[in-house]
Design goal:
TIM Barrel; 6 helices
């Protein structure tokens, strides 16, 4: 069984799939408490569902793209099995994780989006840096950035990553904290340093506002 916070059909707001219709399966629970968290309601709220029930809900939307997110999905033992079940349906599967858990638990046919925590999150000590070596060339890395210290942290890890075997191919996203980090300033830092990263604005917040759920 899984504890599921919500299942909804929306526009993918982040990652290299931004702009595409997507079904989101948000699992309940998170082992971190980031200072800027925008899904605190997912810490505890949710209902028990079996994998077949989740599949039925997702199939009803007739959408080829699905994302398992949280909270932190990998704190639930059944999450990797859910990803495998979606793959069995022929879906494109994204799994977004906070970077504190071993991503090798997730089928490598999925796109694993690792959100490596920067200093302002208050949770940098929870990063499993071994995940950087577990990334495949179709996985993605994200840094949520509040200030210059966060940017410098992210830049350091990007420069290290780009020297690795797959590093040049892995999409890296710099996401400004909504309402806290000016996207224009972050953009200028990226341009000044000639970083090969993608500015990642949260489209769903620009469309529906920062407080609306189920989008």
């Amino acid at each position: 069984m899984l504890r599921v916070n919500e299942v909804f059909h929306s526009i993918q707001g982040e990652s290299s799939f931004a702009g595409w219709p997507c079904v989101f399966v948000r699992l309940t629970g998170c082992n971190l408490r980031c200072t800027y968290c925008d899904t605190r309601y997912a810490y505890d709220e949710g209902e028990e569902m079996g994998i077949p029930d989740v599949l039925l809900k997702v199939k009803a939307f007739d959408c080829p793209l699905v994302e398992i997110t949280g909270g932190e999905p990998l704190i639930q033992e059944e999450a990797p099995r859910l990803a495998e079940a979606f793959l069995g349906l022929g879906l494109i599967v994204l799994v977004e994780t906070n970077g504190s858990r071993d991503i090798s638990l997730i089928d490598s046919r999925c796109t694993r989006i690792v959100d490596l925590k920067c200093p302002s999150s208050g949770q940098m000590g929870a990063n499993d840096y071994a995940n950087l070596g577990r990334l495949k060339n179709h996985d993605e890395l994200k840094f949520v950035i509040s200030d210059r210290e966060d940017y410098d942290f992210a830049r350091h890890h990007v420069q290290q990553l780009r020297t690795g075997r797959f590093g040049a191919m892995i999409p890296v996203h710099f996401s400004p904290v909504f309402g806290r980090m000016d996207p224009g300033i972050l953009t200028q830092w990226i341009l000044d340093d000639r970083l090969q990263v993608r500015l990642n604005l949260q489209l769903h917040k620009l469309i529906w506002g920062p407080d609306r759920r189920g989008v």
